Amino acid sequence: MAKHKVKKVVLAYSGGLDTSVILKWLAEEYQCEVVTFTADIGQGEELEPARAKATKLGIKEIYIDDLKEEFVRDFVFPMFRANTIYEGEYLLGTSIARPLIAKRLIEIARETGADAISHGATGKGNDQVRFELGAYALEPGIKVIAPWREWNLTSRETLLAYAEKHGIPIEYKSGGGSPYSMDANLLHISYEGVVLEDPWASAEESMWRWSVSPEKAPDVATVIELEYERGDIVAINGVRMTPAQVLTRLNELGNANGIGRLDIVENRYVGMKSRGCYETPGGTIMLRAHRAIESLTLDREVAHLKDDLMPRYASLIYNGYWWSPERLMLQTMIDQSQERVNGTVRVRLYKGNVIVEGRKAPRDSLFDPAIATFEDDAGAYNQADAEGFIKLNALRLRVGARRDA
After folding, report:
1. DSSP letters along 175-206, please?
2. Which residue, 83, 98, 154, 203, is the most exposed by fewest CB within 10 angstroms?
3. What percent of the chain has pLDDT over 90?
């Protein structure tokens, strides 16, 4: 890419060391105007300091957007309608935030007349793929600048030296801050690096930021009722809430009861294995409860087909293909399956566990007590019919057994 051809770039800006250095580096290396964009997706940090720092560094156009409701409504909830987990465990807390950020980067580029976007993802991780696949899907001609793939600032020491040389203000937290590489939003917080780079080493208890340990959780369980409409939670204990309010409240309840901790080694899209620890309290509750309401309301074959397709859907999100035609096609199918997923689930939260205690769907349940009962079913089910059913399904097995005898 010819650097002189970039006139204006929109930078995904956190206000931290990396993106503050990137801000100055873009202006120096590309001789272009920089627009900063900071997304509030529930990471729990004060974002106004990012505005102050960008202003101090000479930025004229600064975007700080509250995207919490859009994040949960249009990204988290659709993902959970599919009961999505990657490699059997990961609830995709980082992955699902990236397409929203990519979308907003492109929108701001259009609003400001920028011809490029930039991000602080490294050349080793998945996020570079997610940001850029999303950007190209939404704006095919956009230029993407990924400094970590271009510059020679390859360590924290070189970044600090660059910051000092160019007068970039860096705040040092008392105690040095967390040594872990962390990412947080309303769905989760993640941890990488330090002792976690040894997959045999136990995670330090002091690492966890959100939740109490299951051992220290209350000895009395918390029981809650979750009301569903079309596959989404709309009320907790009878109180209707917005999507972001739902997830915020479930996070509070989950954290208090030691729910949602996870320690995994996952396969990154770029080809390496990586160990990460995650806290996803509200998402853990949502997954268990959603499967419970679906157990009443979904046809058997629909439920099984969803389960068959879910790993592919999860990989699409993990690998950055949220805006791909195949993900959109799958989402249409998933959303259609949720039309009758209405009702209430009662769960007990206790020392790291989410225990389903009850579920009801007065209008949409496929559970028929007259058929399922072990008592007299008054002719609702003719048990003699099972003989022919079994013999027909056993036909190929019997033919094969005779051949092999």
Report:
1. GG--SSEEEE-SS-EEEESGGGGSTTSPPPGG
2. 154
3. 88
The CATH number of 181-298+340-360, from 3.20.20.30, 3.30.565.10, 3.90.1260.10, 3.30.70.100, is 3.90.1260.10
| Residue 1, pLDDT above cutoff 50 | no
- Asked if residue 235 lies in contact with residue 245, where contact means CB atoms within 8 angstroms, the answer is no
pTM: 0.95
pLDDT at 380: 82
237 exposed, middle or buried (CB, 10 Å; 0-12, 13-18, 19+)? exposed
Instruction: Tell which residue, 55, 42, 29, 34, has the closest CA to residue 247.
Output: 42
Which tens digit of pLDDT belongs to each residue from 145-180? 999 999 999 888 999 999 999 999 876 544 456 789
In the chain, where the domains are located: 3-84+94-171, 181-298+340-360
At residue 318, the pLDDT reads 98
Tell me the C-alpha distance between 227 and 247, whole Å.
13
SS3 content of the chain, % helix, strand, coil (to 5): 45, 20, 35
Q: How many residues are given for the chain? A: 405
Please state the φ and ψ torsions of residue 42, each to the nearest 5 degrees: 90, 25
Mean pLDDT of the chain: 95
The domain covering 3-84+94-171 belongs, at the CATH homologous superfamily level, to HUPs (3.40.50.620)
The residues, ordered by sequence, that sit 6+ positions from 225 with a Cβ below 8 Å of its Cβ are 236, 237, 238, 344, 345, 346
Burial of 182 (0-12, 13-18, 19+ CB in 10 A): middle
pLDDT of 171: 67
Q: Is 32 exposed, middle or buried (0-12, 13-18, 19+ CB in 10 A)?
A: buried
What pLDDT, in 10s, does the model give residues 106-120? 999 999 999 999 999
**CA triple 12-13-19, angle to 5 deg:** 110
Catalytic residues: 18, 98, 127, 181
Q: Report residue 224: phi and psi, to 5°.
A: -135, 155
Please state, in angstroms and rounded to a whole number, the distance separating the CA atoms of residues 32 and 172. Answer: 29
Q: 175: which 2 tokens?
A: 């105690």
Q: DSSP string covering 108-153, please?
A: HHHHHT-SEEE----TTSSHHHHHHHHHHHH-TT-EEE-GGGT-S-
